[in-house]
Specification:
Layout lengths: L18 E2 L2 E4 L2 E4 L4 E11 L5 E10 L3 H15 L11 H16 L2 H12 L3 H28 L4 E3 L2 E8 L3 E5 L7 H12 L3 E5 L12 H7 L5 E3 L4 H10 L5 E5 L2 H8 L9 E5 L4 E5 L5 H13 L9 E7 L3 H13 L20 H14 L3 E2 L5 E4 L2 E3 L1 E4 L6 H4 L6 E7 L2 H10 L2 E2 L1 E5 L3 H11 L5 E4 L15 E2 L2 E2 L4 H7 L2 E8 L3 H10 L12
Parallel strand pairs: 1-5, 8-9, 8-11, 9-10, 11-12, 13-14, 13-21, 14-19, 18-19, 21-22
Antiparallel strand pairs: 2-3, 4-5, 6-7, 7-25, 12-24, 15-18, 16-17, 20-23
Helix pairs in contact: 1-7, 2-4, 2-6, 3-4, 4-5, 5-15, 9-10
Length: about 525
Amino acid sequence: MEISKKDHDLSVFDAPQRIHWKQYLIGGKMHTWSGEMEQVYSPMGQVSTDGSIVKTHLGESPLLGAEVGLEALAAAKKAYNNGRGHWPTASTSGRVAAMEHFLKLMIVKREEVSTMLMWEIAKNKSAAYKEFDRTVDYIRDTIEEYKELQRRGSSIASKDGVLSQIRRGPLGVVLCLGPYNYPLNETFCLLIPALMMGNTVVFKPAKYGVLLLTPLIEAFQEAFPPGVINILFGRGRTLAGPIMQSGDVDILALIGGSSSSNALVSQHPKPNRLRQVLGLEAKNPAIVFPDADLDLSVKQIVKGALSYNGQRCTALKITFVHKSVAETFITKLADAVDALILDHPATDSELTPLPERGKVAAMEAYVDDAVANGAKVVNQYAGRVNDTSFFPAVLYPVSKNMRLYHEEQFGPVVPVVVYDDLEEVMEAIAESDCGQQCSLFSTQEETVASAVDNMVNQVCRVNINVACQRGPDYLPFTGRRDSAAGTLSVHDALRSFSIRTVVATDSSQRKLVGLVVSGGKSNFMTTDYLL
């Protein structure tokens, strides 16, 4: 494949000071690891003394063994204590105070975490700071939603001679495994509501985006009681398998792929007891109708397909365009993609290197397969820049006999399918293993109305003339089929990590109930209204 003409110098920026991290958090104590370490390199190289480009060494993190993972699980189990531990029985105000204290400690780490987001996973500068700030906002919003949830449960109901109080309670021990593409925000969208509802957690960061979390570990240690949050480092297959095999995990919280989640769930001896909160793969389609505003469509599809190089589950992974506008659309799309800049994340360029090892080769394999089966690369600058950088390739026309038609590429390759009969598109989407979102591009009321009605039972979010996206965080975020289990949002995540629990009696016990409530000794049976 021809080398891109946009081969920018990614080596001119000074890397941050190396982080040699040997600690892990179990049972409220920071432990030091003396065994094998994982070397962490940036996708961006640097110029050596002889003028050659060498990998940028960012530091190292522990490769903990299975026995350490089981120690963390035991600590989480002890802290939960079958629902009788300090954290699951804590008052609303107690949990809020702990989370607010953590947030205070987190905010001062903004610069460190955001800088490592740039260097470790090549997220551009504005996106790195935005991820941190959005996570802070998410925690604040979760605290407020938790207060509101408790307010709604602060009353005693009386109906048909039955007195009752309904609140949401924790489920137990959570195994939390975050993704590399949003290692702070999406990880915390699992972690924070799980903790807020009184669960205890064993947390392992993703393979990429490890060091950026290290500035926050002491904050977790200080803010939460011992054993409530336990933080491990290492390989998932080494740590997660034995933890699941124990049968002591009550919730699997994972953002990744369905193959990984299925493998873990299959190792649990009592899967019927296991709640799954999962964000998985997606093959989100864009549909460009004959009456679409093509300039708007191209702008949104470029944004949707290539923000953070397409390394998002919410990215547009395939575009269907009507044959009557296909040639004009593909010309505009190719030009718009070629106008993007690939550069160092610190320059705030639209495109950056790819953090996954072997990702460039994987993108080339998709392109080669499509070309071998009749597609063409229609933009000028497509292809490998170096071992970690790949300028986006727009492929057209893509058809069913190509891998890109069915598989989630999770990278900067943009497949375009031409269609004549809309039924072909609807059948392809209905038959897909994924069902997260779609984007519809049309200017006509009748077209949009019909398309929405066809799509709302195939995907969980239909976007009209805008790219697929997760936010705002008050909207539900989920998917059908292999795309998700459970629902995430500020409102829904608290419910995903909890269960409704009822205390009830008959009206003859009114006096006793009144004494319990007024005595103020129960954290569950209380009518205190948290402001």
